[in-house]
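Hypothesis: this fold can be encoded by more than one sequence.
Test: take the structure tokens below, design a sequence, compare later.
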């Protein structure tokens, strides 16, 4: 968290521009992916053949890249290194923009769900799994403030920037 603070405070103007670029890229991406999925669906229905527009990149054995329909296998060590880099950069970006927007951060960490690795930056007040009482209180508070998210920090623009930051980091 201290490292995230140092990075966010080092060049706030740069990070603010970076965050807004992420928001713009997110909206453009939503439109583009909707178009691509729609076009793929229409082509699949009309031709009866599935398109290979998308595919899974999975860890494989051996030292060469091999492709099967819908899946590309890369050497396992390359896959794990790539996933680790993507997770760190993605979550670090969320954290930097959260601190830039003066969100408090509860924790930062890495987790493994079975064989699936993950990472997180948890802003204060996020309440990923609130209790029933918390849900009722949050709904009442949010209705008073005109909000629908469980966060209690920042305005909608700040929240949008924090949410878009991770995906933008992956693009960059």
């Amino acid at each position: 968290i201290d490292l995230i603070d140092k990075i966010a405070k080092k060049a706030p103007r740069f990070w603010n521009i970076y965050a807004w670029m992420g928001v713009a890229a997110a909206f453009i991406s939503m439109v583009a992916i909707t178009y691509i999925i729609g076009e793929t669906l229409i082509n699949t229905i009309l031709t009866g053949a599935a398109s290979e527009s998308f595919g899974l990149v999975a860890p494989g054995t051996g030292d060469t890249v091999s492709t099967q329909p819908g899946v590309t296998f890369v050497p396992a060590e390359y896959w794990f290194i790539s996933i680790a880099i993507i997770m760190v950069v993605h979550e670090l970006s969320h954290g930097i923009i959260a601190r830039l927007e003066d969100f408090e951060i509860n924790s930062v960490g890495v987790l493994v769900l079975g064989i699936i690795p993950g990472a997180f930056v948890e802003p204060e007040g996020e309440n990923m799994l609130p209790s029933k009482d918390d849900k009722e209180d949050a709904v009442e508070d949010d209705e008073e403030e005109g909000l629908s998210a469980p966060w209690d920090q920042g305005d909608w623009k700040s929240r949008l920037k924090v949410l878009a930051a991770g995906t933008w980091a992956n693009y960059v």
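The chain has a mean pLDDT of 83. DSSP finds five helices and five strands in the chain.
Hypothesis status: open.
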